[in-house]
């Protein structure tokens, strides 16, 4: 280590590299966490790296150890998440690290699973390995927030995404006479190209996308991940359609390939049979007293399917229902520098978008002329 350089400043670039490797597993690791690992030799030179992917089975630590070979002895492991210290799909990674002669482990955070949190570190320390925890922890927590919500609460992490004007409108009024305004302010093109491209990055981060039937009827929405990034499993397209009105000729139905799931409460039998013949999965969900589909039930069902994260891209009704039911963990709200007026369709049928007073850990993002507000309604790591 160069003279005058503290352990924290020397470790941070390598922890950031581990986090970069973990991000390379987005879309490939669910339902397990995103993990990246870097191993340096006894002289501090990078000897091996690894990114976890679910299909690849081997954990990031093991891949890094295999790449490092004998150079791992007396070396250091940099990792964004506590090394795996229990038997699961693979043997404990802690045993392999100890056997390889790793001298030091630098990790960003403990495992969010309360059943195993800290046990991997304890095993390493018991074997005489120096362990340091906490570098760039906020970024490390962000990348595995969906896993944390799922493993701690048995529910998917829910992001509500919406694009709107400065006066919090998501579309012109139904039946608006101005055809030019309809085109300019259509739900698809409300924001600019940069913001729209980012939406697909968000879709790529999620296991499922959820919308109401009105979105499909109004926009003939496709709801696919067009980020161009690799996925292990298709983005599950979840439609809330209590009376099963989904058109058979919609782009959603025509493009279905085992990746569309419709929840309804009182389906028409003919529609049910026709959709199933077209490869659409349909499940019955209970209704709330106001006649809406029970989102809490639906999210529990998705968790049973190992769906760790859901992005809601609904209209006013779905936005209102999700927020009222307190099923939203985070919002990502895009704003275009435009105004539609009082008669236009609002963000929520029940009121305005969440404000800064409602949100925690608020971040602002710029996308050309547009901007976005990202904020949390609750902490996915909380008990």
Walk me through the structure:
- The protein is α/β, with parallel strands linked by helices.
- The chain has two domains: 7-143, 3-Layer(aba) Sandwich (Cytidine Deaminase, domain 2); 145-376, Dihydrofolate Reductase, subunit A (3-Layer(aba) Sandwich), CATH 3.40.430.10.
- It has 13 helices and 16 strands.
- The protein has helices at 7-23, 60-68, 93-100, 119-126, 137-143, 145-153, 179-184, 193-205, 213-219, 251-254, 269-277, 295-304, 316-324; strands spanning 36-40, 46-51, 76-79, 104-107, 130-133, 157-165, 169-171, 208-212, 236-240, 260-264, 281-284, 309-312, 330-336, 345-346, 360-367, 370-376.
- The chain has a nine-stranded mixed sheet with strand order 11-10-9-8-12-6-13-16-15. Strands 2-1-3-4-5 form a five-stranded mixed sheet, sandwiched between helices.
- Strand 4 (104-107), helix 4 and strand 5 form a beta-alpha-beta unit.
- The longest helix is centred in the first third of the chain and has 17 residues, at 7-23.
- The model is unreliable at 1-7 and 176-188 (pLDDT under 50).
Secondary-structure map with pairings?
Layout: H1 7-23, E1 36-40, E2 46-51, H2 60-68, E3 76-79, H3 93-100, E4 104-107, H4 119-126, E5 130-133, H5 137-143, H6 145-153, E6 157-165, E7 169-171, H7 179-184, H8 193-205, E8 208-212, H9 213-219, E9 236-240, H10 251-254, E10 260-264, H11 269-277, E11 281-284, H12 295-304, E12 309-312, H13 316-324, E13 330-336, E14 345-346, E15 360-367, E16 370-376
Parallel strand pairs: 3-4, 4-5, 6-12, 6-13, 8-9, 8-12, 9-10, 10-11
Antiparallel strand pairs: 1-2, 1-3, 7-14, 13-16, 15-16
Helix pairs in contact: 3-4
């Amino acid at each position: 280590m160069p003279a005058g350089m503290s352990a924290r400043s020397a470790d941070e670039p390598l922890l950031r590299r581990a986090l970069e490797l973990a991000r390379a597993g987005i879309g490939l690791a669910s339902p397990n966490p995103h993990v990246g690992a870097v191993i340096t030799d006894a002289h501090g030179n990078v000897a091996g790296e690894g990114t976890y992917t679910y299909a690849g089975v081997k954990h990031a630590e093991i891949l890094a150890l295999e790449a490092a070979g004998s150079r791992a002895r007396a070396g250091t492991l940099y990792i964004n998440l506590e090394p795996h210290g229990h038997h699961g799909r693979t043997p404990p990674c802690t045993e392999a690290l100890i056997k390889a002669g790793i001298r030091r482990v630098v990790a960003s955070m403990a495992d969010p699973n309360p059943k195993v949190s800290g046990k991997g570190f304890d095993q390493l320390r018991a074997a005489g390995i120096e362990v340091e925890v906490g570098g760039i922890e906020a970024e490390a927590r962000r990348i595995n927030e969906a896993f944390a919500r799922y493993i701690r609460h048995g529910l998917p992490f829910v992001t509500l995404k919406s694009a709107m004007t400065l006066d919090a409108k998501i579309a012109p009024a139904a039946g608006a006479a101005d055809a030019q305004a309809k085109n300019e302010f259509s739900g698809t093109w409300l924001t600019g190209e940069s913001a729209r491209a980012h939406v697909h990055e968000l879709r790529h981060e999620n296991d499922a996308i959820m919308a109401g039937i009105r979105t499909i009827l109004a926009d003939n929405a496709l709801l696919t991940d067009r980020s161009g990034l690799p996925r292990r499993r298709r983005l599950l397209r979840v439609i809330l359609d209590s009376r099963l009105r989904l058109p058979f000729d919609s782009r959603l139905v025509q493009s279905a390939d085992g990746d569309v799931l419709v929840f309804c409460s009182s389906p028409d039998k003919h529609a049910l049979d026709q959709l199933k013949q077209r490869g659409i999965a349909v499940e019955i969900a209970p209704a709330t007293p106001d006649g809406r589909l029970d989102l809490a039930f639906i999210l529990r069902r998705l968790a049973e399917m190992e769906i760790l994260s859901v992005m809601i891209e609904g209209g006013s009704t779905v936005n209102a229902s999700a927020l009222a039911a307190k099923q939203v963990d985070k919002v990502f709200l895009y704003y275009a520098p435009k105004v539609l007026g009082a008669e236009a369709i609002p963000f929520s049928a029940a009121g305005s978008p969440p404000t800064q007073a409602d949100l925690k850990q608020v971040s602002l993002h710029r996308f050309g002329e547009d901007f976005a507000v990202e904020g949390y309604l609750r902490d996915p790591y909380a008990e």
